[in-house]
Amino acid sequence: MNADGAALARAAAAHLGAPFRLHGRSGEDGVDCVGLLALALRDCGRVPVLPRGYGLRNTAIDAHLACLPASGFAPIAETVALHAGDVVLVTPGPAQQHLLIALDQDTCIHAHAGLRRVSTMPVPLPWPIRHRWRLVA
Fold first, then answer.
1. Which of 39, 68, 85, 112 has CA atoms 20 to 30 A from the CA of 47?
2. What pLDDT was estimated at residue 97?
């Protein structure tokens, strides 16, 4: 168990029920998946590096992914067990990418655009996983 990851998971869970808003960075006014990760990192005393210029649909996101290592994350293989605080990038639809934060090996938390709020989702996730990261620094 990674203590930093567990703290990140607890911080993310504190925002359950917050409204969804694209590019949102406030638990009161709303967050998107990037905003949820940013809030949770800040709540853990970290300074997140955030991507700019993304939308609900993006044809290319590789430039945005550099923000994760800059925020203290290292890539992990899909075969590694999911731990609290791990960040998962999925592809829910064409040209659509989405970040989730693991609460534990069985549950993730995310800013759900369809439900219009931050909610939980059971693992296994219903979408293809593109990348996974773990907080290390």
1. 112
2. 85
